[in-house]
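Morning!

This is the sequence you dropped in the shared folder:
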Amino acid sequence: MSLEGYWGVGPKTADTLRESLGEEAAVAAIESADVRALTDAGVTPGRATRILRRATGEGAMDALATRDARSVYDDLLDLAAEYAVTRHAADRIRVLTPLPDRAARETRLDEVAAARDAWERLGESSREAVVAAFDEYDEAGGTDRAAVEAVLDLRAAGLTGDTFDALGGVDETALREAADALRYLDGDEVATGADDRLDRLRERRDAAAELADSALDVVESVRERGARDADAFQSAAVEYVATETGVGSAEVRAVAPDEARDAADFVGETLRGLVDDLEGRVTDRAATVREELRSAVDGADTDVETAVGAVDDIAFRLSLARFAAAHELIRPRLGGDGVAVVAARNLTLQGEVQPITYAVGDHDLAAGELESGRTSLPAGDRVTVLTGANSGGKTTLLETLCQVTLLAAMGLPVPADAATVGDFDSVVFHRRHASFNAGVLESTLRSIVPPLSGDGRTLMLVDEFEAITEPGRAADLLNGLVELTVDRGAVGVYVTHLAEDLSPLPDAARIDGIFAEGLTDDLDLRVDYQPRFGSLGKSTPEFIVSRLVANADDRTDRRGFERLAAAVGEEAVQQTLADGDWEPDGE
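The structure's back. Tokens below.
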């Protein structure tokens, strides 16, 4: 396949890659998801990532039907990449895409689970040793030698398990011999330290070459020793060169010219001959040593190939395992025609997070999988309309469901105590965008309706649709979306403050509510983020107004907020302030 055959690789990008890498190497970099190779060649990181996602995931990126769904996807992979043990593993994580079928997802879930088991069996010192081994592998540039040494270090750290079978199947003795040999092989070059004899020959050659570059200085040095005639000078020159280079006098005399015009000619010819002789001996000895080293490597050829082929895969799986362990992710149950989660957590929220239990569509979560005190979870509703308090976590719940669905689609564990996730061809996630601009409404409808109208299975997660048009018309549009979701056999969660304005919902839809319960002693909104199934939530503006009244430093401002309190229900505001034990300053 030519470079131009890959998505996102136009003539300009192809020329850049050919000039820097060559056609074959550039194709190999794309096929192996080597982001670094592409960026080093001059492709911007963002473009390189997009090219590789399409190359490795084919049409899978089309499942992310909206910009907000792609944003959640990017955030998840950036978070997972933070736990990568090598640069290449991080690159591979960033180009993960939804897998094409359930079997592929189950296989990856198996691999991650096995890797996590192996990681969690290690003690702290062994984990540090594993990370250090991959750090050294990275610093060495991922060479064959670095791969072999990494495998030896990983074995020594005790990394075992089904997903790391390659580590247990090698001959450690042969691999150590190969590692020692590879330490001194750099392509066709033999490094210093491989052979003492070769090192001495190289030192003598270099010393001779240095003298040859300053032959006139050699002549002066010899003359200073008192040589009076040509024979005496030549003998003295041979001894001088032998002493300075460490070469035997007989070897120097053997390369000296039989006749020379003068002293300078004799010294120059002798040194050039000695350099040529030593260079030939270095070449011959290097060839012998190189053959010996390669023989040691060839003797462990299968083990070396195993090590080189295994290290990157081990790093990738172990990186995902570390991500799963750090966030206490669990394996979801794949199948059904909905999404159901028990004690789900949003991975991008900081601080203490209240876990949420929720379900839409068909699922098979049993009572024994639910948190204490809950005996059942709604099932069978194609659509839920989620209502309730401002700042009540409705958008966060949508985002959490999106995170769970996308992670499961990539064959990765999810942030919950239990979860079932159906097979969706499209995930539509739309965050609230406050604008009454007709262009925003049109672009939003263009992004969320086509996936719903197609033949595939779609998950709709839509937040406050009314924010992009006037409330009356928004209710009409929302009604239409709910009915279309049910008619098309899709599954959807719609967040709105207009539930009471909707016409009677289809039988396959229900209304859920999130409730604010007052203000804390610090006048923060106290919310039960767990939705109450089948209950209409309230926006409870009196809590917001109560906080404004309490926090007003200026009396004039406070009087204005008190007028608002009267408008929303002064009794409710006063009760809220009383519950918070608030007293106005100076009263």
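Headline: The first helix runs from residue 11 to 20.

More detail when I'm at my desk.
O.
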